């Protein structure tokens, strides 16, 4: 069921939601959060499709905020809010409201979104492209418990990653970090199988891929050893090589789908390590709504420190990132690596 509202208000949109639920016989219960997507018209379709797929796992009210740039001077000076309300089969397992803001109201999107939030439910704001440099200080980001950006969609991902580190606030996360969850889990599991010390690490991947940098920063932070970044043609991450005192450990993925894990003295094993789509990434982020201290710790290490040996956990990194609660003295390489990537559990409803 779709309802188009032109030159409307938040109050009329709420009424349309209530009338729509009555018409299709669907109560407002069962939705666990409000997902706010801030995007442009060009990327709205793909972002909404990913959110709809993720809603099968996390039923939610999805608010798509599109700030329209008016062509004429008259339209730029006149504020207008158009909305499209989708319920039932047109919205999957939740509710969807597409908001198009014109004129001055585009600068006050939070005043439109606030009355449409589900009461007593978490709020997640996602910028598929062109996220703010400081998401927590953005008017819409200030409404959320979780703020999701994607540095991979930026023109200069590495510079954007540095800016994210400088402005980090608990609750911030990035889909470039989410993309490496399977890699972190697989590497931690590999080190569980051997009793040795890691001496150096090499991370191989595309040159301007922030996921490669984040994985290298995580390994350098957790293991306390030099990590070298090498370039490849991709796709994405292609290999991680661990130099240990009992032989090399290599996790390589040349085709973006199937990886090979090689451990000295053991037969090679094929492991599924496919590149995941955006729907899977956003669904993973919605499973966990508390601050990600591991991400914060990896950000603190900083891109510029890759390749240099760690000088101890007590030394502050070059970026102003608050220390996570669980930060402690560096453990031996194997013990540090045994801390697997955190299992993302569903947030309390």
UniProtKB/TrEMBL annotation:
Residues 332-342 have a biased composition (Basic and acidic residues). The lineage of its organism: Bacteria, Bacillati, Actinomycetota, Actinomycetes, Kitasatosporales. It comes from the Bacteria. It comes from Streptomyces viridiviolaceus. Residues 170-299 form the Glucose-6-phosphate dehydrogenase assembly protein OpcA C-terminal domain. This is Glucose-6-phosphate dehydrogenase assembly protein OpcA. Residues 326-349 are annotated as: Disordered. Signal peptide: none annotated. Residues 51-165 form the Glucose-6-phosphate dehydrogenase assembly protein OpcA N-terminal domain.
């Amino acid at each position: 069921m779709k309802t188009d509202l032109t030159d409307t208000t938040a109050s009329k949109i709420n009424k349309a939601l209530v009338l729509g639920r009555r018409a299709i016989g669907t109560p407002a219960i069962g939705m666990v959060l409000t997902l706010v997507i801030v995007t442009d018209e060009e990327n709205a379709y793909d972002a909404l499709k990913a959110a709809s797929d993720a809603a099968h796992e996390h039923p939610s009210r999805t608010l798509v905020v599109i700030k329209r740039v008016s062509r004429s001077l008259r339209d730029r000076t006149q504020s207008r809010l158009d909305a499209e309300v989708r319920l039932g089969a047109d919205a999957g397992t939740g509710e969807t409201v597409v908001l198009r803001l014109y004129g001055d109201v585009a600068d006050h999107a939070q005043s439109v979104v606030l009355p449409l939030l589900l009461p007593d439910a978490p709020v997640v704001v996602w910028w598929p492209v062109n996220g703010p440099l400081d998401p927590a200080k953005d008017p819409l980001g200030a409404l959320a418990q979780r703020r999701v950006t994607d540095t991979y969609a930026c023109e200069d991902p590495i510079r954007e990653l540095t800016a994210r580190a400088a402005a980090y606030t608990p609750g911030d996360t990035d889909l470039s970090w989410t993309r490496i969850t399977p890699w972190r889990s697989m590497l931690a599991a590999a080190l569980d199988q051997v009793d040795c010390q890691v001496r150096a690490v090499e991370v191989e991947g595309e040159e301007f891929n922030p996921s490669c940098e984040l994985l290298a920063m995580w390994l350098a932070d957790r293991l306390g050893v030099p990590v070298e970044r090498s370039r490849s043609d991709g796709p994405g991450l292609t290999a991680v090589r661990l130099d240990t005192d009992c032989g090399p450990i290599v996790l390589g993925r040349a085709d973006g789908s199937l990886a090979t894990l090689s451990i000295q003295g053991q037969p090679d094993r094929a492991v599924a390590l496919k590149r995941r789509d955006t729907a899977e990434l956003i669904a993973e982020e919605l499973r966990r709504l508390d601050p990600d201290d591991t991400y914060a710790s990896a950000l603190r290490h900083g891109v510029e420190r890759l390749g240099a040996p760690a000088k101890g956990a007590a030394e502050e990194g070059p970026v102003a990132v608050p220390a996570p609660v669980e930060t402690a003295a560096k453990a031996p390489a194997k013990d540090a690596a045994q801390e697997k990537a955190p299992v993302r559990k569903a947030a309390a409803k």
